[in-house]
Amino acid sequence: MRSFLVIVFFFTGLFGFSNEQMEIGIFRDSKVSQLQISYVNSSFDIYIDSVHLGRIYEGNICYLSHSNGKVFASLSGKKFSGERLEVRKNSPNDVCQIDPTSPDKKARKYEGDFRIDVSKGSLRIVNVVPMNLYLAGVIEAESGAYQTKEYYKVQAIISRTYALKNKSKHRFEGFMLTDLTNCQVYKGMCRFSDKIREAVEETKGLVIVDSSLRLITAAFYSNSGGQTANPEDVWNKPVPYLKSTSDPFSIGGRSCNWKKEIPRWKWLNYLRDEFQYPIEDSTARMNALNFKQEKRKAFFVHPSYGIPLRDIRKDWRLMSTFFSIHEEGSNVVLVGQGFGHGVGLAQEGAMKMVKEGFSYDQIIHFYYSGVFIMDKEKVDYFTLDVAEF
Question: In this structure, are residues 386 and 9 in contact, taking their beta carbons and an 8 Å threshold?
């Protein structure tokens, strides 16, 4: 009976995860108090507290603001207020434009529907959008519009995996994910490359899982500098499929090399004040001014000093933790490699691998060890726990 029940669940389509609705909090880097919603194509219906107010069409703009915890809307000369405003599309290809005016932010075009209410003194704007359209927007924002389709397939699979694994990350805030780098960058609809939409469709439902068929932490960043990082050196937690490894494909990339100069006195005082580093000791001082990393390290100078390189990166806003130090005149010069936290897939390295003829699955297996690429519906079929009867 157990096997029979599983088969029924699978084939009756109860799993439609591959294109589920995503709820994305947008413009999360600003406290938006006023915005405009305008027509791009087709039309959208506007509701406040489930009451239909009217329709946005060509030349017709909906103006929004808030006061005393309520949303105030103006449409076609009529004014309304309520707890929540909804923007609902009338056809699958409808597109509207969201234009924050206070503060003034660059307008963005979006597919899907919207929920807008008031939270913590500002408008909370949630784009409710099918997974495939969300992924296309993420890929364009994260990768640009001029990559190959094979690379877009890589980004589609890791971004889909990330979205599904973390879809409850911001539930307490009223949505699933943000549009910022703390989740995945999302600036609205994919506008410039049909190859992105094709890559999303051609990898539909594919995700990355570990040996227990659990969605992996699909970490990615710009450039490894030639060696990826161990997660325990960045997040204090080892992950079996995320291991530090040589990455020759990132070398020479646009974001591979960087340099930063800091006054010597400022650097030494920082080490003393923040970490009680013994700058008066001649040997310790010399090591602090002449630090070398031929391979990635977790700590500055020596672990006994307890100075994580990730803290130095954060405090000085460095591109990576993979840097060496030498003196030049009255300054110390930090010469670094790579851009980002260094754990998982390096985007510029993956792009180079595509140019050298590697396929999307080979690239994924290069950066994530011991993983499997599977259809999400099949993953759920094999892991579903159905009670015995």
Answer: yes
Q: How far apart are CA 201 and CA 228, in angstroms?
A: 30
HSE-CB of 170 using CA atoms within 13 angstroms: 20
Amino acid at 92: P
Q: What DSSP state is assigned to residue 347?
A: H
**Alpha-carbon span 121 to 150, nearest angstrom:** 44
| CA 88 – CA 129 distance, rounded (Å) | 11
Distance, CA of 109 to CA of 172 (rounded, Å) = 26
Interatomic CA distance for residues 248 and 351, integer angstroms: 12
Burial status of residue 51 (CB atoms within 10 A of its CB: 0-12, 13-18, 19 or more):
exposed
What are the start-end ranges of the H helices in the chain? 2-11, 131-143, 149-165, 194-202, 231-235, 264-275, 282-289, 309-316, 347-355, 360-367, 376-383
Q: What is the pLDDT of residues 112-124, one digit of tens each?
A: 999 999 999 999 9
**How far apart, in whole angstroms, are the C-alpha atoms of residue 64 and residue 217?**
38
Cβ-contact 303, 286 below 8 angstroms? no
The pTM score is 0.89
pLDDT in tens, 224-283: 999 999 999 999 999 999 999 999 999 999 999 999 999 999 999 999 999 999 999 999
Which of 187, 99, 105 is CA-nearest to residue 143?
Answer: 187
pLDDT band at 355 (very low <50, low <70, confident <90, very high): very high
Find tokens 């990559």 and name the residue.
147
* β 84-89/323-328 pair status: unpaired
